């Protein structure tokens, strides 16, 4: 069969994708449209706005990129300087890079210019790239706001706007930036908003920004085949390093993300792992963009099997085949737990999520259990073990935390509360773990379920950020994305 014939048989042809785009989709292995693509592409080709409830991993990038590319291809190369025909906003740099990669793949051979506008890397090269005007600009809201404010970017010609992971932008306090950016784009633009969850603020944002949208809801992968087996290991903060290293000695843990609540904590865990003989990459908001991307690439291509991450840096990351998520500590916001464990169990594969819990974190654990609506089984209890390293005066782990060490999403810049708290409601199946080891294999380590009453709440405090920015305003000093 010739390539032409193959392309004609491609399911994307029936959705209205033609020519070079169809060939590129075919070459990229995109032959059968995913449900979100089948539902979102035809109405967008007709010019309709889209409100999509879908997660990263659902195929939403191609769902919004193919129609935009298809419309831009016909327009030729004439663009005004400093403008972008289409703007895609993403909450994190990593997601933005991922989106550009997919767009480049799909636009192969179609003379489309793309540019990235992200915090944490040189502004000069970004300004230079957009100076002649670009077809598709992919940006995080913070740096984009800076460029608009300084007159390096004009949004008046932007006729396609995509807001990706709206709920995460909300969690990170970007919502006002997003509204201002949308307002600066062409009034007759076509807009697509995607969000994994639907808190009230996102419903309101949709009302304000979308015109008579087609609403599309795609079930997350994990409600279908994948299952994430979740459990808790009770260990004092000082014991966690040893417990983690023992766990990681099990080679069945072949691809592991270890989450740390703070940037400093992530660095410390990485160093401790190195001392214990484990090579781990680390990713957090204080790392340069190049270091973050290298860590992610090394983890993705399997050169390192352990990635230590803070919540914010790991958001939106779609690395296939992560076998385990280990929560070295509990997140400040219970909703983050759901995002963390969702890094495994993707594309229909099972995953294991293990949370190390110090007695001082019991309150946070309770909050997690409340939102996921299940009691997490305890598969190991080290609290009774002798701990020669332990300082008897130490009762909590908070002393590790220098000022400004927490990543942003635990402390929204706009000072409001995060999403609806229903994130975990139906998504994750929880099997009793009595017959599983750390690696998730049936066998030798029975679960030790503890009655609820044994965990004492610790009165966990929440960090709240604050930010009010306009195009004319001042930028906050500490921004993760
Ligand atoms: P996304 O949700 O856009 O990040 O996509 C998740 C993953 O699915 C990415 O690795 C895509 O390359 C892949 N993907 C998206 N659409 C298709 C398709 N129709 N066929 C095969 N792979 C796809």
Write structural notes for this entry:
The protein is an alpha/beta fold and 481 residues long. The protein folds into two domains: 3-217, Rossmann fold (3-Layer(aba) Sandwich); 228-395, P-loop containing nucleotide triphosphate hydrolases (Rossmann fold), CATH 3.40.50.300. The chain has 17 helices and 14 strands. The strands form two sheets. A seven-stranded parallel sheet has the order 3-4-2-5-6-1-7, with helices on both faces. It is elongated, with a radius of gyration of 23 Å. Bound molecules: adenosine monophosphate (AMP). Adenosine monophosphate is lined by residues 29-30, 32-34, 37, 56-62, 318.
Summarize the structure.
The protein is of the alpha/beta class and 481 residues long. The chain is 34% helix and 15% strand.
Keyword list:
481 residues, alpha/beta, Rossmann fold, 2 domains, 7-stranded parallel beta sheet, 17 helices, 14 strands, 15% strand, disordered C terminus, binds adenosine monophosphate
Beta-strand level of the residues, as a percent range?
5-15%
Low-confidence stretches: 221-226, 388-404, 408-470, 472-481
Tell me the overall shape: elongated
- Number of structural units classed as domains: 2
Radius of gyration: 23 Å
Strand order of the largest sheet: 3-4-2-5-6-1-7
Could you tell me the CATH topology label of the largest domain.
Rossmann fold
- Architecture (CATH level 2) name of the largest domain: 3-Layer(aba) Sandwich
Q: How many E-type strands?
A: 14
Which ligands occur here? adenosine monophosphate
């Amino acid at each position: 069969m010739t390539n032409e014939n193959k392309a004609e048989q491609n399911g994307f042809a029936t959705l209205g994708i033609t020519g070079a785009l169809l060939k590129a989709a075919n070459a990229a292995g995109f032959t059968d449209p995913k449900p979100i693509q089948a539902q979102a592409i035809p109405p967008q080709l007709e010019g309709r706005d889209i409100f999509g409830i879908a997660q990263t991993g659902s195929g939403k990038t191609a769902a919004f990129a193919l129609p935009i590319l298809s419309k831009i291809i016909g327009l030729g190369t004439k663009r005004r300087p400093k403008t972008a025909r289409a703007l895609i906003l993403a909450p994190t740099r990593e997601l933005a890079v991922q989106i550009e990669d997919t767009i480049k793949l799909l636009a192969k051979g179609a003379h489309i210019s793309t540019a990235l506008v992200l915090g944490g890397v040189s502004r000069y090269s970004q300004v230079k790239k957009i100076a002649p005007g670009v077809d598709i600009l992919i940006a995080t809201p913070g740096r984009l706001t800076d460029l608009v404010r300084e007159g390096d970017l004009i949004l008046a010609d932007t006729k396609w706007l995509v807001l990706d992971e709206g709920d995460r932008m909300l969690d990170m306090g970007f919502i006002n930036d997003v509204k201002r950016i949308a307002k600066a784009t062409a009034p007759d633009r076509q807009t697509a908003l995607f969000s994994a969850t639907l808190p009230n603020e996102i419903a309101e944002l949709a009302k304000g920004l979308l015109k008579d949208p087609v609403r599309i809801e795609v079930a997350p992968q994990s409600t279908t085949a994948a299952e994430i087996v979740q459990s808790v290991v009770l260990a004092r903060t000082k014991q966690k390093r040893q417990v983690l290293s023992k766990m990681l000695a099990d080679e069945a843990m072949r691809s592991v993300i270890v989450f740390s609540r703070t940037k400093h904590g992530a660095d410390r865990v990485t160093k401790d792992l190195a001392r214990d003989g484990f090579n781990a990459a680390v990713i957090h908001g204080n790392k340069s963009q190049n270091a973050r991307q290298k860590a992610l690439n090394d983890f993705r291509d399997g050169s390192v099997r352990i990635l230590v991450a803070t919540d914010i840096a790991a958001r939106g990351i779609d690395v296939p085949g992560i076998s385990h998520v280990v929560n070295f500590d509990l997140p400040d916001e219970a909703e983050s737990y759901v995002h963390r464990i969702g890094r495994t169990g993707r594309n229909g594969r099972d995953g294991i999520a293990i949370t190390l819990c110090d007695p001082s974190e019991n309150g946070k654990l309770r909050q997690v259990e409340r939102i996921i609506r299940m009691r997490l089984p305890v598969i190991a209890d080290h609290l009774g073990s002798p701990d020669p390293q332990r300082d008897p005066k130490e009762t909590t782990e908070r002393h590790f935390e220098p000022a400004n060490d927490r990543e942003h999403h635990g402390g929204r810049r706009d000072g409001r509360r995060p999403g609806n708290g229903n994130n975990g409601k139906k998504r994750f199946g929880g099997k009793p773990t009595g017959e599983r080891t750390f690696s998730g294999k049936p066998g030798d380590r029975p679960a030790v379920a503890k009655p609820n009453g044994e965990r004492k709440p610790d009165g966990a405090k929440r960090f709240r950020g604050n930010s009010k920015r306009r195009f004319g305003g001042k930028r906050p000093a500490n921004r993760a994305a």
